[in-house]
Amino acid sequence: KTNFRNLVVGVNTKIPLINGSYVTAINFDNAATTPPFVSVLQEIIRFAPWYSSIHRGTGYKSQFSSNLYEQSRDVIARFVKADPKKNTVIFVKNTTEAINKLAYRFCEEGKKKVVLSTCMEHHSNDLPWRDKYKVDYIDIDECGRLSMEDLERKLRKYKDSIALVAVTGASNVTGYRNPIHKIAALVHQYHGKILVDGAQLIPHVPFDMKPDGSPEHIDFLVFSAHKMYAPFGIGVLIGPKSVFEQGVPADVGGGTIEIVTHDFIRWAEPPHKEEAGSPNIIGVVALAAAVRMLESIGMENVERYERSLTDYALCRIRTVPGLRLYGNKEDCQDRVAIIPFNIEGMPHDILAAILSYEAGIAVRNGCFCAQPYVQRLLNIPGEEVKKRIQDPKMDHPGMVRISFGIYNHYDEINVLVQMLHKIAAHRDDYLLKYKKILNRA
Ligand code: PMP
Predict the structure, then answer these.
(1) Domain Aminotransferase class V, which positions (predicted)?
(2) What pLDDT tens digit does each residue of the chain (441 aa) get?
């Protein structure tokens, strides 16, 4: 048994099943959101008496809160080994806001107009680029892995007009980790920059942005606190200070300026220039506390433990008759703890509902905000997707996804696998029952 279990709140919560009995809730939806660390909630309570406005008051509490807010940038920078001299740590709402902010910023730089996204991105690292740039998508192979050959091909094709390669550190669908430092080295040869969407990577493995002078360094990194044991509403955008020194920020208002008259503006220095409005000090305090806890566990230990959970789950889940795994079915070396699957003849939303109502297991189903990637993994061409939209009776394509956190346990995987066996053995009975419950034709 590991001793990670009691680090988060809510692990012993009892929830009702459809038959009226109660079970301990199992959360296998950590790729969406993790529960907070106990230490994070304690830190919020400890901080509460000092709760005050940031950068806007001379009162003792305001000064104290402002100092804590600024020190938290260093905690975050150290965690991902961001170069403190060259980089700025900007606090945002979440990964999505961070990427939209960057898309706006880069647009202002003009001239270089191509952004290479990939076929495996979350919509948040695809849509923000679409109307501002010429976007092309780096292809994937038959397993759903990024094609390094296609990356090189596209770099050669667009050459110096490439502004940015926007790539996920780990997929929120297959869990695949991309070789981001190798990609960075290639992109830099073409004088482009690289953005790593760290939403699924930063909470699970040690991370190193690498020094600015190194060819492998990561130019921009974004991630969200609610996927790393801290609350919603806070995230991070890290990038070269010089990029944010120029031009006008995406959001303007209080906190973003140094001097204003009716016909003159001098913007504040980054990061302040990019943090319009009163900052989310509770969120920042909580995120810094989560980072300190992850550091004290050791990210190598987090990675090792979650890999062993994934290994175990892959091994066990494969024994379920009719179960279809997607992407890489064997290897755990290049993935974070995410496993997508389906059971033949069972719609993904019904399977997810059965797991919840009959066993208290929370999973995610559907396309996980990565529709083009899921369509590719399911072999559904774009034209077919459009046809299905016209027909309300057609099932929406999708999968079921389980994703682990540091507090999950082998016993919980056993409960899942046992339930999946039961569902596979009595598939038609479950289908009949749940089509009625969910009001499905
Ligand atoms: N990128 C990836 C890879 C994600 O998994 C997610 C969240 N599912 C996001 C971006 C968006 O994160 P947020 O909703 O916190 O903005």
Answers:
(1) 26-415
(2) 458 999 999 999 999 999 999 999 999 999 999 999 999 999 999 999 999 999 888 899 999 999 999 999 999 999 999 998 899 999 999 999 999 999 998 766 556 689 999 999 999 999 999 988 999 999 999 889 999 999 999 999 999 899 999 999 999 999 999 999 999 999 999 999 999 999 999 999 999 999 988 999 999 999 999 999 999 999 999 999 999 998 899 999 999 999 999 999 999 999 999 999 999 999 999 999 999 999 999 999 999 999 999 999 999 999 999 999 997 655 556 899 999 999 999 999 999 999 999 999 999 999 999 999 999 999 998 888 888 888 777 778 899 999 999 999 999 999 999 999 999 999 999 999 999 999 887
Q: Is residue 119 flagged as an active site residue?
A: no
Q: Give the separation between CA 100 and CA 250, rounded to whole angstroms.
A: 9
Q: Is 273 found in the same domain as 154?
A: yes
Among 251, 268, 295, the domain-final residue is 295
Number of domains in the chain: 2
Query: Which 3 state secondary structure label does DSSP give 195?
Result: strand
Residue 122 in contact with ligand 1 by CB distance below 6 A: yes
388 and 427 share a domain?
yes
| CB-ligand 1 contact for 95 (6 Å cutoff) | yes
The verdict on 59 and 140 lying in the same domain is yes
Q: Which domain CATH number covers 24?
A: 3.90.1150.10
Give the range of the structural domain holding residue 119, as residue numbers without chain letter: 40-295
Tell whether 273 and 367 lie within a shared domain. Answer: no
Cis status, amide bond into 271, omega within 30 of 0 = yes
* Ligand 1 contact, 177 CB (< 6 A): no
Specify the DSSP class assigned to residue 9: T
Chain center to CA of 105: 21
